[in-house]
Write a structure and sequence with these properties.
By secondary structure, this protein is α+β, with helices and mostly antiparallel strands. It has 3 helices and 5 strands. Strand 3 and strand 4 form a beta hairpin. Helix 1 crosses helix 2.
Length: about 90
Amino acid sequence: DMLVRYATAQDRLLEIAAQLVRPGGRLVFVTCSLLDAEGPDRLAEFLEKHPQWQADKLDLPLGSARGQGMRLTPFHDGTDGFFIARAALPC
């Protein structure tokens, strides 16, 4: 199923990106999907596997809270569909 393949690829990308962040740095995770399986669920699984990472609260002028990030939609925000989140790796 394509959704499983995309979710697996996103998990791998998060793992690779996380290795490139120094302590005190941040990782921004953005998907152009409205599906929880491709956004909030991916971040939640990453944070569960990596308890040293902490989700940052985003303060964006658009969007609504979804999981530990924000979701923007064509209907609510007049944008394409996105999930946006930021996680910090403490020092």
